[in-house]
Amino acid sequence: MSQPKVPVWVNVALIPFINIMLAFLVSGLVILAIGEDPIEAAGYLIYGAFGYDEGIGYTLYYATNFIFTGLAVSVAFKAGLFNIGGEGQAYIGGLGVGLVCLALDKTMPFYVIAPLAIIGAGVFGAAWAYIPAYLQARRGSHIVITTIMFNFIASSLMVYLIVNWLKEDGRMAPNSRTFEESAWLPYLHDFFLPLGIDIGSSPLNFAFVIALVCCVLVWGLIWHTRWGYQLRTLGTSATAASYAGIDTAKVTIWVMLISGGLAGFVGINEIMGVNHSLLLNFTAGYGFAGIAVSLMGRNHPIGIVLAAILFGALYQGGAELAFELPNITPEIVVVIQGLVILFSGALEHMFKDRIEGFFIRRAVA
Amino acid sequence: MFETLILMLDATLRVSTPLILAALAGLYAERSGIVDIGLEGKILGSAFAAAAGAAVYGSAWIGLCFGILASVGLAMIHGFACITHRGDHIVSGVAINTVVAGLTVTLGLDWFSMGGQTPALSGDARFTDITLPFADALASVPVIGQIYSNLLSGHNILVYLAFAMVPVTYWVIYKTRFGLRLRAVGENPQAVDTAGISVAFIRYRALIICGILCGIAGAYLSTAHNAGFLKDMSAGKGYMALAALIFGKWRPVPVLLACLLFGFLDAVAVRLQGVELPGIGEVPVQAIEVLPYVLTVLLLAGFIGKAVGPKAVGRPYVKERE
Amino acid sequence: MTNNATPYAIELRDISKRFGAVQANKDICLQVEAGTIHGIIGENGAGKSTLMSIIYGFYEADTGYIEVDSKRVDIRTSQDAIDSGIGMVHQHFMLVENFTVLENVVLGAEGGALLKQGMDAARVELQRLAQEYSLDIDVDAIVEELPVGLQQRVEILKALYRGARILILDEPTGVLTPQEADHLFRILKALKEQGVTVLLITHKLREILASTDNVSVMRQGEMVAHRETAKTDKEELAELMVGKKVRLQVSKEVAAPTETVLSAKNLCFVDGQGVERLKNVSLDLRAGEIVGIAGVSGNGQSELLNVLSGITPMTSGEIQFGDTLINAKAPKNAAQMRDLKMAHVPEDRHKMGLVTGFEAYEAAVLGYHNSDAYNGKVLMNRKVMVDECSRRMAGWDVRPPNPHLKTANFSGGNQQKIVIAREVEQNPDVLLIGQPTRGVDIGAIENIHEQIVKLCVAGKAILLVSVELDEIMALSDRIIVMFDGAIVGELDIKDADERTLGLMMANAYNEELSEQALQEGESA
Amino acid sequence: ADIKPAVVYDQAGKFDKSFNEGVYNGIKRYTADTSIQVREFEPKNEAQVEQGLRRLAKRGYSPIVAVGFSMTSAVEKVAKDFPNIHFSIIDGVIDLPNVQSIVFKEQEGSFLVGALAAMKSTTHTVGFVGGMDIPLIRRFGCGYEQGAKYITADATVIQNMTGSTGAAFNDPTKGSELAKSQFSQGADVVFAAAGGTGIGVYQAAKDSGKLAIGVDSNQNHIQPGTMLTSMVKRVDQAAYNAYEAAQTGTWKPGFMVLGLAEGGVDWALDDNNANLITDDMKAKMKDISAKIVSGDIKVHDYMSDNTCNY
Ligand SMILES: Nc1ncnc2c1ncn2[C@@H]1O[C@H](COP(=O)(O)OP(=O)(O)OP(=O)(O)O)[C@@H](O)[C@H]1O
Ligand SMILES: Nc1ncnc2c1ncn2[C@@H]1O[C@H](COP(=O)(O)OP(=O)(O)OP(=O)(O)O)[C@@H](O)[C@H]1O
Ligand SMILES: [Mg+2]
Ligand SMILES: [Mg+2]
What we know:
The structure holds four protein chains of four kinds.
Chain A: H1 8-33, H2 38-50, H3 53-78, H4 86-104, H5 110-139, H6 143-166, H7 188-192, H8 207-224, H9 226-236, H10 238-243, H11 248-264, H12 266-275, H13 286-296, H14 301-324, H15 331-346, H16 348-364
Chain B: H1 2-31, H2 39-57, H3 60-84, H4 89-112, E1 129-130, H5 135-138, H6 144-152, E2 155-156, H7 157-175, H8 177-187, H9 189-194, H10 199-225, H11 237-247, H12 252-272, E3 276-277, E4 281-282, H13 285-289, H14 291-300
Chain C: E1 8-19, E2 22-33, E3 37-42, H1 48-55, E4 63-68, E5 71-73, H2 78-83, E6 86-89, H3 101-106, H4 115-133, H5 148-161, E7 166-170, H6 178-193, E8 197-202, H7 205-211, E9 214-219, E10 222-228, H8 234-242, E11 260-270, E12 276-286, E13 289-294, H9 301-309, E14 316-321, E15 324-327, H10 334-339, E16 342-345, H11 349-353, H12 360-363, H13 382-395, H14 412-424, E17 430-434, H15 442-457, E18 461-465, H16 469-475, E19 478-483, E20 486-492, H17 498-505, H18 509-523
Parallel strand pairs in C: 3-8, 3-9, 6-7, 7-8, 13-18, 13-19, 16-17, 17-18
Antiparallel strand pairs in C: 1-2, 1-4, 4-5, 9-10, 11-12, 11-14, 14-15, 19-20
The complex binds adenosine-5'-triphosphate (2 copies) and magnesium ion (2 copies).
Residues 22, 25, 29, 217-218, 236-237 of chain D line the site of one adenosine-5'-triphosphate.
């Protein structure tokens, strides 16, 4: 019996659209409840995110983080693993970047530091994912719980390291010293200005390009290599994987290494691209937002880029909104983010089943 | 030395109270097969609602009711997603935590214009400490009297409630019809369904209990332990309760012990800040802070015992595949 | 109870049920006389379990209604069914494994908000039932520690404890030895004498003929015939079941096996729970023969296949495969075994043989995905995979021949062909085949059987595992019987008959032999 | 002149009951006095600090008051890009021609409240609960200790820091636990220099019947009867002055160090704590104040050498 098929656009476009609209609708109600006009709010939000060069720059800068964490969550998800530890992996990834920059910025030129810092981000992020991955693969401990625990451990570790070892003497804020410019990732506006293109001054930097490259690499990896084949097999059926002679423990571990590495790349954007020093809490929830991004983006790199831009727009537009309407805090964006996770993740079947049912019935009739 | 110990244990009781409540809440949920990573969000939501209610109506009890209502409401959203719509439990929990983190601040700012905080509570708007009978009279009796009057007496009612919930939970889980069904539904929901019992109804009831307990935990934070709501005031307590739940292997008494251990570590960490220990030197507070998480990971990895949860936990109960 | 206006205990009227695109039951009508044993037969997937689950309130019918004792009843939940005196023993047991027998029995019938009284009362009642129907059991035993036969007993007790007057048994003998099955049928007879109506679902014609009063036949979701058991026979029922005349025998030459290609010695396997699943299993496979493994499912056959194919590492023992020696110290995983030219058609194609989310061409390289043929330096060569898949689909008559269709969307037989084609086309020396025709419709069965025979003729060594004795007997040259993880007997096909195999499967053959010898000695 | 003033609070938000709220009060007062609206911005993360500053600068807001040391690097960057906009940073030091850096001699105010605490203490033990463990907060602690010892030479001063991150300024639960632990060690007056964490300290003091000292703003009203006094740091005044100076054209860049003499720090006496303070104490305080202003009492600044050796 071949089953009647649901048109592709339903799954790829219609259902995510309905979910996000629902999230917006409920957020609109919240805004209404606090006595502001949702339409006006949406106007500020859209203007802030896309209305001017600098705004777009900020949107894409935030999107860079979301691409990294979104990819991180989705790579693991493709292999059937829920990596909820992106936050901690990003944090430790930033440590990797920071250590490389602090060690080399005085002595080495940019083209030596940059690749090493990128490797540092990946290796540190991956290392932080390795332990939960190892424990899941070899000792059967549940990766969701262990990665949550590792988020807390990462945050304590970073406090300890930064406060006790890396903080610059005499500085109040718990930051390392600011890196020399040789360890700064170029801003895109600095890159474009000599070409006669003014894109406004924003933190958007070269990490965005790295993020896009990662998307292509992840896409190729998942759908066009034997490793991708193995991880997709494992993600759909663990028994089929062991039948196929796939070393599931090994796949689990390296998938988590890739996932952790991708999350760690947030450090490139934040530490090397924007803050130019190692500081506390620069991950600011991007790791958790990665869950929403990968859900929205249906675990496909293109979807993830789009979802990341959407979330970047929410962050940037949300700041603009809070700036224009002081009654609204930027936390409204966190509410929207949560609602997106709720509707397109937890409640995905609510509409999906009905809509698909509708199309199946139409196909049958 | 003995007095210090008493005071440390006294602090332990205060700090572990929300953990105990939340971990027991998680116990009901997970024993029924629902993973509840949203404990954190429920605590936070209830802390906010309780403080808001107490601030507006000037009564801690009214605040408590608000807190419980908010928390049960969140639990019902979790149920709606996970039970009715077979959603992923983890995703639903993350969603709830995220929404609450944003919503409490947004509403708080609008209602109280204090940057997301609630007004400071005082008087009847807070749960105040209760002195047990004869506590003052016995205070001078060495050891026993000190334990009684300094350690056991002088907590607010929610602390006693939390500890009372442990035997109550034990009784409910192991000695009642509801408990039998609850345990069964977390192990094999099909068996329960074919025995003529509604899986969904049991799970919803478990989540309501979970909501109530988290509600009390949240109200404790904002109206008893503290005097008002602060943004993100749950500060990971929900996750730590989850860790305690696993550490206690989903059984009431071991869970209590795990909570006390974690609470004790917290109380120690507060007091060890910057203190030189003889022979060890200064222990970084962070090292003590992470101990509960590290211990739980070690347990999960099977290095100290083995944690095996209810068999059907986290798996949506699907009767008909469409 | 009203006096018997009609003698029917239960009547179904126009019951229909659809799961998504599958019409599992269509306009089903059925009348079951009170106090009889009524059989329902049908192939895998005919809709038997679905229908029974509707009676038991587990599923709700889309249309139609049910009458119990001539009164229309509204059964929406299992509780409604229980209230109407219906009990059911499910195909897959519905027991809470880490509960005691007593807890399982009282679950849902606790008799009060507190457990104590209910449990005490149940203890007494279970004792009574045990005596009445010879259903002895230790009520304080933990269910997962009981053998399957006893677990089934718990299910029956559960139903009786709830006062079931109508008892549904869904394929109760699938997990039992013929001798255990006989015991079950004796119990059913006793129940019938007490006035209980029994609905017995199976696809084993033998059991139907031996123990039922009436029989109904289902095919593809429809009820196609009702017969009085006494007035029908095996051939008629088989034909009704599959809708055409079936040839129960495969035409097969006597094998001419040549050299030994695989030889396993003292294989042992202990699972994660510390249970010994394989006990000193030794066997040889020779080129050009089919060796059948018979046994009730769950007696180590799956583990044997998994160990031989490298999916699970053995605990001890060794396998000599061609020039390679494999043992616990030098294990080979499934991929390495494939490299040594071993192919494996797994028992469960959904969970193992295929990845249901993959397109056919992807599933068609499962296990061989690392082979140079499908890979460039870094990327996989999609074109090669698709072309090869198309070619195989044409050769094996897979329908529809679309390499881009999701594997989930092929029918069972076609899925099985995709799996068998994949394994066979690698030209292996040894082929392990588990349950080749499970869930496959009859047309495809013939086809698959022919292909297996062809391979044997082509000189492959084939190990066939099946719970269908008929299949084993039709295909094998040699039959090995497994019980409780060990080999308990081996027969050449010309010495094999159902009775002997049945006794061996229950590990009762040797006892019977010695008993016979004893009797003979006495009489002499 | 017409000015477009603005303020950027730090991440604790303008209702932290102490530091930011002090600035907020100054701004409220300024708006009430001049009916000039001040544009306020509360950032939620690192990136938004800089973004907010930039946005305000772009729209021509000046002067922009930045609240707190954590804003230093962001202000530095943005000030470089907008040389025509005036920035005033409180508690931070930036050497740029368009930035005014306002810092306080917290040690002097802390000395005063330390002295008062010691006068009030019956156990000769007083406590100090700091927020985040940074030199700035140690400066409070050091001054406090010095003040206490000035009155009672053998006084015990128990010092605890809440933590080592920004969160330490907003953790009342921990504040209350620390206070309780200090009470159990005999302290009967506790000074909290810990932002929002102080709320928990004051609550604990009230619950245990001890005394507490507030910080930054006048916090005497939070727990009347429990609050012995507050070490006021006139950040409100600093903000007020910055706007006022800009309005009158007298705003100038450079460092401003506000001590007791300049009215930048003080101890608070109002109705809420009047009956805790005897006339004798008042007189003594007055005397100490005068001595500090005159230089007879030299209060050690922790940050001058990162030690508390006086
Ligand atoms: N819960 C379900 N969701 C979707 N489809 C189902 C479900 N249960 C059964 N089916 C489908 O309905 C059809 C009838 O299945 P059913 O289990 O009733 O067959 P059966 O006769 O009991 O077969 P078997 O002999 O294998 O037990 C099959 O095609 C099956 O795949
Ligand atoms: N240097 C000054 N320049 C202008 N006005 C001043 C100055 N010092 C005090 N004032 C005025 O005197 C009034 C009383 O000052 P006081 O210290 O009581 O402030 P307050 O309203 O209690 O603030 P807070 O709540 O921060 O303590 C203030 O409202 C202020 O307008
Ligand atoms: Mg069936
Ligand atoms: Mg005042």
